[in-house]
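@channel sequence for tomorrow's demo:
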Amino acid sequence: MGFLVVLPMAVVHEAAKYPRKFAEEGIDFAGRLCATEEDVIELARGADAIIVEGSQRPITRKIIESLEQCRIISGTQIGYDSIDTVAASERGILVTNVPGYCVEEVSDHVMALLLACSRRIIALNRAVKDGGWGFGPQSSEIKEVIRPAIGRLRDRTLGLFGFGAIARVLVPKAKGFGMRIITCDPFVDESVASEKGVELVDWATLLEQSDFLSIHASYSTETKHVFNREAFSAMKHTACLINTARGGFVDEEALHEALSTGSLSVAALDVLNDEPPNGNPLLSLDNVICTGHYAFFSPESFEEQWRRPSEEVSRVLHGAWPVALVNPEAKEKYVLQWGEMCDPQA
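structure tokens (generated this afternoon):
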């Protein structure tokens, strides 16, 4: 009997390459948009592999427990919190992600947001289109509101919450503007930060000293809403919060309050708690920039995002361990069910 790979999403864009790719390997493929857990279970029950964009179609314990012969769940994103890795490991199912595929794009996007905030690009553009210009008589908003908030970047402090791959790629880009960079990451040794010319600090120092604070940590129950009223009250009232990571890091009610009362200057958000948003009050604020979860995108990153999960599936179904395994604890049960595996380079 041949293998079956399923995609519980619309087979469009880069995923449209899957039917041909797997057919060339003698592997069956089925994909369709699944709106509910029951839809996914119906599609995937007898599958050997699942490819999924977890943020759009979470793979829950209920789904995983319904799987009869699944060997691998291959995610198309860096984050994998929407795939129940504990349940997968209990079943001996391998879970993979796509680390590093968009580090250049996201770090570029952070710099774009940082510059937009520092130079108040969005506000200036809006004011000009409303009739303002320079120091003219119709430019009271520019002179009285926007101009006082514009500043140079050199010697300003960029704080990084988390010092993983994206943050490390961001460092030389920010240093090119003469910025001082600090980071808070309990999982990083001081020498690692020091090698990059970055100062490792504690949480309180990160909040107190950052002129721009960009989120790059791993999302978990421990970091949910870590940016809350207490955190915002500890930040500079002139500070800018940048989030291109996960919406859940931020208590949006507290952020709205901080931005509305002037205890925080501006927020540049690529992600929100609920996506797509439905009446999110943050989007009504002039001091919020939102870019619709597009920090990851370029044609190159998009192709890589969908190609690498299919390669992981092929690797596993042909008897090799995946390259980007996020739950190595599943290996023992996997081998008991499916036999020994070779090295991914073999």
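heads up for whoever presents: Residues 25 and 331 are 24 Å apart (CA to CA).
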